[in-house]
Amino acid sequence: MISVIIPAYYKEEPYLNQTIENIFRTAKGEIEVIVALNGYNQQIDARAQAVLLKDNMGERVAMNEAVRQASGDFLLRIDAHCDFYTEGWDLMMAEVTGPRTITVAILAYIYHSQANLSDAKLHAKAKAEGWPDWKQLPGHWYGMCRLMPNMEAKWIKPNAKRDYPTVVPNMAFTGCGWLIPTKFYWEIGGADESMPAMGAIGEEFAIKAWLNNGKVQSRTDVVIGHVFGTGAYDTQGVVNALKMLEVKYGDRYDEIKAHFPDVEIVPIRTAKQVRDRRTVTVNRTDETVTKDNEGKVIQKIVEHFVYVWIDDGSESNLTDHQIQETYAPLAHKIGEEKWLANDKGELIKVEGE
After folding, report:
1. Most buried among 121, 151, 308, 330, using CB within 10 Å?
2. Residue-wise pLDDT tens digits, 47-87
3. Could you tell me which residues come within 8 angstroms of residue 199 by beta carbon, excluding any fewer than 6 positions away?
4. What residue numbers bound the domain in which 93 lies?
5. Cβ(109)–Cβ(47) under 8 Å?
6. Domain boundary among 257, 289, 314
């Protein structure tokens, strides 16, 4: 049996029961749903079990409390604002999940009128075209994820035209829509409650799985929809969690990277100084090249960053190289290019992304 674990708090009230209904409707095997209501209460689908936390203790505590009530051999961790598009997801994910394996579904975007409220253009388009709530947004989906040396996840958007194997090894994953054996969950310590209340759940469990003789994989034919912009995302919590993960596991990054020699990050950094305006513009370009198992380049992502430094005279003795080394890490992202290999193996720039 699979125990579906849903941590929730008050901002997810408009979505939670739809998520529960979808889980029961699309599952084909035996499941139970356990919802950790984190610091609030609401009426939920009678088929689900509620775990009430008096105070909002955060996602990690909520997960562990819910898992303690679970009776399944597997745990499926999902957000409170999701829909499975693939019927039988439970059997499909369980059949490829070994005793020390985490299996992840492909993540798709869902539109909802009560979310993404800051995106006026998206809401205008939805209104004009009469979109219903829980509409999947075509072309917005993610499934592959790598860890950077600072333990932050870097997404690699799958090429819809490429014929992927059913199961693909994955270095990391989002914190939503993943299956793990219950014994393995506790063997690697469950959710680390010494870390920030929420943020970087996927990175945490991926790191602990790979460093404890386990593995992470994506099942590319199982798709789960996710409503973004619900207000449940804590940006600072994610930042703090990543910092803590880097402190705890950063010196072991190479152990994880050794499983994925096909991805390399090549930073190219330059500095250009316009002296008459006492301005230094530091341009940084990070290039991510993805190769297949045969060493052929199948994707290239080029990210452009910039930092503008005004020379007030206090550091006028700095050389361009010193400015570059000092300020390139502070640059902010201004654009991105994506290149994909065609049938002939040639890299073609993807337009309109």
Report:
1. 151
2. 999 998 888 888 899 999 999 999 999 999 999 888 888 99
3. 59, 234, 237, 238, 239, 240, 241, 242
4. 2-257
5. no
6. 257
